[in-house]
């Protein structure tokens, strides 16, 4: 079984990534994740049905509208929207998904606020598993490739056991798919 560190390393080694959950009106984690990954040299695609552009780049209403199939999608939405995005991933052939949850993959704190701060949908995780999509059900790319504060948060979550692949979550690791 792959660890979250393995899954994160594999996800972040991909060239083309999309972020679903971009906002033009609020300062949300998806915006910061998009900007960080673009700064790190990834070919980025912003996804939001409410925007035409984001941070000077084209923004697409859904994954089917993208000019290419991304190697992975970071989902930073409400869980019910996450389920829809995962269905789009299945339809378009996306092989990697990261569902954002700042509390990690096995939240130990702020459980009451889970729906408010989490993009993880158990049903979406099951769909990923059924369709062979490598899924990270929680955590944040910024905790693995971001600023010092986010890396400290990652360390704290690991110490607390909140960054492990949940048993029975369906988290799987794909073989590396060659990119064109």
Lay out the secondary structure.
Blueprint: H1 4-12, E1 16-20, H2 29-39, E2 43-47, E3 53-54, E4 57-60, E5 72-75, H3 79-92, E6 96-99, H4 114-117, H5 122-130, E7 134-137, H6 141-145, H7 148-159
Parallel strand pairs: 1-2, 1-5, 2-4, 5-6, 6-7
Antiparallel strand pairs: 3-4
Helix pairs in contact: 3-5
Describe this structure in words.
With 180 residues, this protein is an alpha/beta fold. It has a single domain, classed as NAD(P)-binding Rossmann-like Domain (Rossmann fold, 3-Layer(aba) Sandwich), CATH 3.40.50.720. It has helices spanning 4-12, 29-39, 79-92, 114-117, 122-130, 141-145, 148-159; strands at 16-20, 43-47, 53-54, 57-60, 72-75, 96-99, 134-137. Strand 1 (16-20), helix 2 (29-39) and strand 2 form a beta-alpha-beta unit. Helix 3 runs parallel beside helix 5 (122-130). Mean pLDDT is 82; it is low at 168-180.
CATH topology: Rossmann fold
Give the CATH architecture.
Answer: 3-Layer(aba) Sandwich
Broad structural category: alpha/beta
Approximate strand percentage = 15-25%
Residue share in helix = 25-40%
Low-confidence stretches: 168-180
- Count of helix runs: 7
Shape: globular
Short description:
The protein has 180 residues and is α/β, with parallel strands linked by helices. The chain contains seven helices and seven strands.
């Amino acid at each position: 079984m792959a660890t979250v560190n393995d899954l994160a390393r594999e996800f972040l080694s991909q060239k083309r990534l999309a972020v679903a959950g971009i906002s033009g009106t609020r300062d949300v984690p998806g915006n910061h994740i998009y900007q960080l990954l673009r700064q790190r040299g990834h070919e980025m695609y912003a996804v939001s049905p409410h925007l035409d552009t984001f941070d000077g780049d084209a923004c697409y209403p859904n994954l089917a509208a993208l000019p290419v199939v991304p190697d992975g999608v970071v989902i930073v939405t409400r869980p019910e929207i996450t389920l829809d995005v995962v269905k789009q991933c299945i339809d378009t052939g996306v092989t990697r998904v990261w569902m954002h949850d700042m509390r990690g993959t096995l939240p130990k704190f702020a459980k009451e606020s889970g729906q408010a701060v989490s993009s993880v949908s158990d049903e979406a995780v099951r769909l990923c598993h059924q369709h062979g999509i490598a899924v990270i059900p929680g955590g944040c790319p910024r905790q693995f490739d971001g600023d010092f504060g986010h890396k400290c948060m990652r360390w704290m979550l690991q110490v607390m056991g909140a960054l492990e692949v949940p048993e029975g979550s369906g988290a799987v690791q794909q073989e590396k798919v060659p990119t064109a």
